[in-house]
């Protein structure tokens, strides 16, 4: 069970964008340089965040990305699921209904207890990540962090 | 983030073995026929369960598998981690320390807050599965299930 490597990228890029001044944006190039990431692949991930409603993209020569919503209403779950999708890691293929031990259909109206327990565990994971917003993350940063982030991101240092 | 298809197999096989009479065993062939699974690949997974201390293997012509411990002390987590491993799905590669935004090492003594939150979510998943034993699963089966399971598993019907 593995999350894509880009999960770390998008969590950090979203955290970085959450530190911009209102109305400001950052380009793919700026974000790629900030974290030394491959720009073309990062661009794909940023697009996925736009599609998921986490980021907004502005076009034009000075275009770039900003948060689509306030940091307090963007959760880590939304960011992770934007790049990894929402399908649960455990897949039940109803093996209880096949082979010599096959249960009759009338005993299989309810979800198999094993599938149900695996789904509960996935929900526990989801709730944990749904309980953390970008605002919560920002609140843990040192007070001087956002201005330093903005300075380094713009590349004007 | 995907668990291997064999996760469902081992959860069900362990549940099946938990329904045997004390001292009884079932072979790979019997389990494979019970769920219509490819025996060679199932054999590998059962070996992983033995290695993890979930199952015990007896050798010889009447050899087979049984639970290595009481059903009440085998958790779904142990079964799942036996086949999928214990490494967490999220991998932090310390991107906070690379690129133009690289933080100085002295600001990176603590685990990155994003990595910490991802680890918490994984722990929530683990606790959920660690809280369910095979005995809990058996307790949800209809009273007639274990004897039917034994009959069909032995293939003498
Ligand atoms: S039939 Fe799929 S988990 Fe039981
Ligand atoms: S440096 Fe890896 S999650 Fe922050």
From TrEMBL, chains A, B:
Pfam families named in the record: Rrf2
InterPro entries for this protein: TR_Rrf2-type_CS, Tscrpt_reg_Rrf2, WH-like_DNA-bd_sf, WH_DNA-bd_sf
Xref: PANTHER family: TRANSCRIPTIONAL REGULATOR-RELATED (PTHR33221:SF13), WINGED HELIX-TURN-HELIX TRANSCRIPTIONAL REGULATOR, RRF2 FAMILY (PTHR33221)
NCBIfam families hit by this protein: rrf2_super (TIGR00738)
Name recorded for this polypeptide: Rrf2 family protein
């Amino acid at each position: 069970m593995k999350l894509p490597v880009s999960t770390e990228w998008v969590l950090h890029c979203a955290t970085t964008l959450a530190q911009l001044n209102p109305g400001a944006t950052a380009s793919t190039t700026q974000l790629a340089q900030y974290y030394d990431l491959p720009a073309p692949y990062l661009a794909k991930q940023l697009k996925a965040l736009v599609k998921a409603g986490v980021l907004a993209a502005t076009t034009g020569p000075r275009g770039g990305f900003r948060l689509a919503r306030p940091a307090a209403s963007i959760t880590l779950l939304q960011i992770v699921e934007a790049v990894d999708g929402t399908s649960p890691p455990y897949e039940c293929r109803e093996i209880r209904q096949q082979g010599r031990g096959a249960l009759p259909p009338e005993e299989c109206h309810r979800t198999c207890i094993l599938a149900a327990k695996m789904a509960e565990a996935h929900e526990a994971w989801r709730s944990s990540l749904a309980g953390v917003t970008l605002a919560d993350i920002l609140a843990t940063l040192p007070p001087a962090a956002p201005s330093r982030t903005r300075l380094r991101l713009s590349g004007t240092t």
